[in-house]
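Quick note —
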Amino acid sequence: MSFTLGLLTFLLYLPVRQAQFLVYDDKGYILDNGFIQHGLNQDMISWAMGAGYMSNWHPLTWMSHALDCQLFGLTPRGPHLVNAFLHSGNTALLFLLLVSLTGAFWRSMVVAALFGWHPTHVESVAWVSERKDVLSTFFFLATLLAYFRFSKRGGWISWLAVVIFFALGLMSKPMLVSLPILLLLLDFWPLKRMTLNKNTGLPQRDVFLTLLREKWPLMVMSAVSCMITYYVQWQEGATQPLAVDSTVRCLNALISCAGYISKLFLPIHLAAFYPYPKSCGFVEVLLSGIVLGIITFFAISRRRQHPYIITGWLWFLISLLPVIGLIQVGKQAMADRYVYIPSIGIFVALVWWMAECFQGANSRRWLVTLAIVELAFCVLMTRQEMGYWMDSIRLFNRAIEVTRENGMAERSLGVAYIYAGKSQESIPHLEKAIQYDDKDSQSMSDLGFCYAMQSKHSLATNLFSRALSVNPRNPKAHYNFGMSCMALGDYSNAVLQLKEAAQLTPGVGEVRAELGKAYVGLGEFASASSELAEAIRLNPGNAETCFNMGLAQEGLGHPAEACLYYSKAIELNPSDARVFNNLAWIRCSSADPTMLNGREAVRLATMACELTGYKASVYLGTLANAHASAGNYSEAVAVAKQAIQQAEASGQSDIARRNQELLGIYQSGRTFREAAR
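Predicted structure written out below.
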């Protein structure tokens, strides 16, 4: 049955193989992460162990993403199928765990099916960046299975397995810090390792303390994980303890807790992002408090007759505590992914209670019918929810549809339109995001990028400056600001902005490449070479970076190295006329005689001219000198005249004048050579 449940779950999620990478986190996690793109290697593992990138320390998750790139390349199909496979494995493991703990086959099957097929878990599977959810839960369930073995047999080997699996889980996602307390709940029920006081129905103090001391190594691991996580998120600016009033945070935690329960029972109007409320309504807070109070009272009052209710309820509350928002991380009020593990407690309490309430034959028939209907409903809703996660535009349109004043969804939809090549359509969404939050640095940066794409660089730079005044550590704003400065020819400011972006995103090859390009424009070729070398290391398959490295090497007076990089650029992109032209120029005019090859220069310069339809006067000028270098002076004179005519027709007086000077050299039977450095 364990295998069957896993297989059915995998088949249910098979459509995610058609899903795309999302603009929300997937770009930063994978598409812009040079360490991840190179696959598993020593540099990547060292980076993963020490990185707090994207406000997270989860090295094992980073390694799994790197392995995806190594196996599947930069395509979304493979990573999505891996997520589906892990979720299916979690469903099978949960069934195996519950059967081992309780011996209740059918109840365990229903709980595992609810877990595997519930639509609130689509976010954890269909979003590649949420690999941390499904991967950490795999190790979480493995830890519980190892603990079950330890509770029955004891022994240091069983305990070592608990510690190792828990460590791997924390290295996948630190949300597992509550696991030591959850083990105490399992000691209460169903393991029954606690002796209860006959009068109070509570665990006896000495037994409880013994079981608590047993778990001290796990508690130390949880404490260390909490400190690392808080430090990383504080350093990256993700924690916002003062951005939202503490009273609002507490009230929102109350509302969110009740909201999660409602979504588990009625999973409709799910969204990729739920905006944080500006204030909490009295009625909403009151109703949430009443609901939570009633459930808590019921669970406590039934702790002797139905211990699984209080175990399941406390499992839900305790496992949800790290992400409930008392310390605010990010701008979301709640998130469906946060209920991935907590939902198990609710499902167990509900299924066990209903199974015991309906004991008669007729009652059991109704119960079976209800279970089938509920599971069928979950399957249908999960398939529908997966449809929204196929691409960013559908996903965030849906979020805007089912929530109110959702600035993050508006911004993400705007960014999705940018990547779809529809920058004009993105502008109203980004403007609305800023309207909802006038301190939204990311939306300001993205809107500036839209204006920069329309060559409205004055508007763009104003928005970038505004974004950085709100958040000076916004790498995207620094990067976009630098790109606009470069487009305006302001290479000094471009370097300043791109250096900031590179420091904030050390693993992003694209940023280092553009910084190198800015240094080339500034004439600082040594600095350019250093930055471009790092960019090539992070992303060796970028033709533009190789071209700019060729320019830097030329500037340093290293024609041989320049030729190597130009040749690599041609190999990566054989339709770039600039590269053929520059390589041809070295082959026909270099001061180093070992670099000269007239015939090769003619071939390369001809390719440059053919790619531009013989309409680029600069490339015609190179072809003329190439002919002269090959000894074809009459051809050189003819092409030089054509270059002059072309330059004059297009108003390029400097190029026309330069080719006129070169024409005299060819007419005297000589070839132009660069001066030795």
